Amino acid sequence: MGEEVNESTRDGSRQLMDLILALAIVLLAVAILRKWAAGRRPATWSHPALHGKQLVYSEKTFRSKRHGIIAKIDRGYLAGDTIELLEYKTRDRHRVYRSDLIELSAQRVAVEDETGRCVDDAAYVLTERNRDGTRQLHTVTLLSREALLGIKQRHEALLSGRESPRLAASPALCLSCAYLSECGGASERV
Ligand code: SF4
């Protein structure tokens, strides 16, 4: 009887040890994964163009009350007296689109109007290619405040029906457009 109790106690201890070991392995795996993920975030990534600049904003939302613009910025670096914005994109190709410029330009209006700080005309788009995880930093020039507000007004006019949409300037744009079946595409309508 005494031996059975001892045997059962040993089994219980072994199970407990196995459980602790399994838990330790899981915790170690989580720690490794966290370290790997942190290394992939742009905050820990550097580039000569950003050297000497201080990261002052990270994934922060700003509002321009007077223009009704709310924008979340990925990164904001202090360079001298001005803020330089960086937008992070994961893509199939290392490419910058006009929509990136519009997005960054709206961010500039929101940051300037909320903080009173000056945001530089030059900004960055950091692309990361899905296939191999490589990164490229692209320097872009933001749209002026007037141009950005003009785009915003046109967008609002289209949504309200006060203005009609124009066909894409280049039929090639239609090839990847989600509305091609509804619209017919620029090449078929001119
Ligand atoms: S398919 Fe129509 S909506 Fe899409 S880009 Fe071409 S013209 Fe514009």
Feature tags:
190 residues; alpha/beta; Trna Endonuclease, Chain: A, domain 1; 2 domains; six-stranded mixed beta sheet; 5 helices; elongated; binds iron/sulfur cluster
Q: For the CA atoms, what is the radius of gyration?
A: 26 Å
Number of helices: 5
CATH architecture of the largest domain: 3-Layer(aba) Sandwich
Number of strands: 6
Bound molecules: iron/sulfur cluster
On the 0 to 100 scale, the average pLDDT is 86
According to CATH, the fold-level topology of the largest domain is Trna Endonuclease, Chain: A, domain 1
Class inferred from helices and paired strands: alpha/beta
Succession of helices and strands: HEEEHEEEHHH
Helix fraction by DSSP (H/I, runs of at least 4): 40-55%
N-to-C span: 95 Å
Number of domains: 2
- Low-pLDDT stretches are none
Largest sheet: 6 strands, mixed
- CATH class group of the largest domain: Alpha Beta
Q: Name the shape in a single word.
A: elongated
Q: Please state roughly what percent of the residues sit in beta strands, choosing from under 5%, 5-15%, 15-25%, 25-35%, 35-45% or over 45%.
A: 25-35%
